[in-house]
C-alpha cells in the first residue's frame, strides 16, 4: 500500500481545511481501503470524517426525507421512515453487499463507490478511468457485466450502487458543503457518464463534502420497490435491476418513477417508461408495453447482449409487483 497520512476531524470546517490541503475524505472505507490495498487508489492523505454530525435521518418540512451522508447503509435500510415512505430505498440497500459491509459503509460513500470493472481493479490492464489515455481493456475484453447504456468510446463500466438507482428513480438531491458554502445538486447531475473523461465520476468541486441525500416528498399513497437480478442470490452486483415507485389514485397511475441499474454507466432513469405509465390504468398489458421502452438507445457489447432483453423483463416484473397485478 502506498504511504499516506491520516487525520481524524471533528467538525466540518476542519474537514474542509484538511481537504484544501489535498486530503481525501474517508468514512466507512469499504471501497477506498480495498482500492488502496490494490494500489488502484494512492491518496497521500486521508481525512477521516466519521465523527462529523451527519448521521441522522430527518423528515423535511415538505415531507421528504433527508438522509445524512454518514448514516450507514444498514441504519438507513432499517429506519422506520425510510421503510414506510420509500421501501424502494430500504430494499435496494438490503440487497447490496453483505451485512458486515452494510454496517460499515455510509450513504455518502455508497453513491461515491467506484466501478467493479475487473480491468479497473487490475493495475496491469489498460483503463481510461484509472489512468486516463491508456485505453479500455473491457471494450475488446470480457464485457458480460458491463454497460449497454450511456457508454462511450472511452469507458463502458457500470455504476455499482443499488441505492443510487433508487435515488435516481425518486429524483433525489445531493447536499454538498465546500469552500464556497453549501449547494444542492440533482441526483441526475451528480454522477457523470464517462464521455471522454471517465476518470471524472461525480460533479464534485475540489474539497466538497457530501452532507446528505434528500428524497423529495412524493404524492401519497406511493408504492415502491426494488428488484435486483444477479448471478447468485447474495453478495453480488446487479446484472440488471429496477427501482419503481407508483402513485395510483382513482384506479389511474398519476405519477411513475422508474430507473434501472446494472445496465448504465450511471443509474439509468427511464423517462420513456414513466411516460407510458402516467394516465393509464394498471394492467398486465400496460406493464409489458411500458417495459418495452426500457432499453431505448442500448448499445450492447460482445458479451452482454442478453442485458437488453433482461432489462425489459426486469422492469416489467417489478412494475407488476409494485403495480399490484402480479
Ligand atoms: Fe476502465 Fe472503464 Fe474500460 Fe473498465 S470499462 S477498463 S473502468 S475504461
UniProtKB/TrEMBL annotation:
The keyword Oxidoreductase applies. The keyword rRNA processing does not apply. Keywords: Oxidoreductase. Residues 1-220 form the FAD-binding PCMH-type domain. Pfam families: CO_deh_flav_C, FAD_binding_5. It comes from the Bacteria. PANTHER family: OXIDOREDUCTASE, XANTHINE DEHYDROGENASE SUBUNIT C-RELATED. GO terms for molecular function: FAD binding; oxidoreductase activity. It comes from Streptomyces aquilus. This is Xanthine dehydrogenase family protein subunit M. SMART domains: CO_deh_flav_C.
